Amino acid sequence: MTDQSPAERLVDLLDLERIDLDIFRGRSPHESLQRVFGGQVAGQALVAAGRTTEPERPVHSLHAYFLRPGRPGVPIVYQVERVRDGRSFTTRRVVAVQEGRTIFNLTASFHRPEPSFEHQMPMPDVPPPEELPRLVDEIKGRIGSLPERLERMARRQAFDIRYVERLRWSEDELAGAEPRSAVWMRAIGSLGDDPLVHTCAVTYASDMTLLDAVRIPVEPLWGERKLDLASLDHAMWFHRQFRADDWFLYQQESPIATGARGLARGQIFTREGGLAISVTQEGLFRPLRETGGGSQS
To answer: How far apart (Å, rounded) are the C-alpha atoms in residues 190 and 5?
Structure first.
């Protein structure tokens, strides 16, 4: 529906159709992309896994592989395997299938919360989101107006994104750039009160900027592109409750890039400074002329 808010569209995207006890079908919007956004597939797969577990057992970790690029506009079927239902932990495996081919798989573990000791690393000291420009405004300010494709994507963007460091637009600005980045994010509008929706929404968002940290030393994030990239795998650990429609800080760094692959690590903090999620992802980076349309293999 065209009159939906960005948050409503995201909730609708994550609201899978149940076609059998452990089989779900998800929409894949037909947008001007070469392949389905990986965060969408991960978020929908986690919804499928969560729909087969007890609500009092939130997810505490997921490990996933992107096996083939998905085709925009074609539904994706998620098949859930109930691997284990223990006294404290539940394990689910999800296979995402599109047009008869497996494009993604995920294993997720759910845990009944228990009392324990606590410690965490502190949140970085960064400016608050109110002092930073919206990404869409920063792009408009640089190039005057968004190209039609980016304008259309900006209108449908479910998250307000604000980079802590200034964006670099040319190779001349890359000198001294370190492989790290930080962004404030929050869903544009209310996502309701279902904790699973917030978890899956952040799973969706976690794939949006994480590989920036790998690219920052070698090419401008929003200038002329020389590299095509694809997510290869994705892992997340959920530490405490959060809301995806409240501001959260996504701190990202890349410890290494080699062999056409780059590793990125992220930490997601609540506005109050609590470490909510840890993320790790490896991406494939190839010169655009060699990608043949963005295939992962």
So the answer is: 9
Catalytic residue among 28, 206, 207, 212: 207
pLDDT per residue as tens digits for the range 9-59: 999 999 999 999 999 999 988 765 678 999 999 999 999 999 999 999 999
The verdict on whether 98 is a catalytic residue reads: no
Cα dihedral 35, 293, 173, 162, rounded to 10, equals -10
CATH code of 238's domain? 2.40.160.210
Residue 207 designated active-site = yes
Q: Is position 281 annotated as part of the catalytic site?
A: yes
Determine the Cα–Cα distance for residues 172 and 19; give it in Å rounded to an integer: 53
Catalytic pick among 231, 251, 252, 254: 231
Total domain count, the chain: 1
Cα 147 to chain centroid distance, Å, stands at 24
- 61-119 pLDDT, tens digit per residue, is 999 999 999 999 999 999 999 999 999 999 999 999 999 999 999 999 999 999 999 99
**pTM score above 0.85:** yes
Q: How many CB atoms lie within 10 A of CB 150?
A: 17
Where b means 16+ CB within 10 Å and e means fewer, 271-286 reads beebbbbebebbbbbb
Query: 69 is in which domain, residue-wise?
Result: 6-113+129-290
Annotated catalytic residue: which of 44, 206, 281, 296? Answer: 281
Cα 242 from Cα 198, distance rounded (Å): 7
